[in-house]
Target: DUF5652 domain-containing protein
Amino acid sequence: MGFLAPILLVLILWSFYWKTRALWRAAKNGDKAWFVVLILVQSLGLLDILYLYVFGKKSE
Model:
């Protein structure tokens, strides 16, 4: 189990980074539906990355 701890930590940090970034942009853009979906769906950051680069246009 000891060798899994670093891998698990990396996955948690990876997911946290993308989740935070996507939620921040969804809130900033006023995308309430995306915000709720991103909160409810845990996907190792895949849905978050999809939102950031495909659906979530940068607001200036």
Summary: The helical segments are 4-29, 32-40, 46-55. The mean pLDDT is 86.
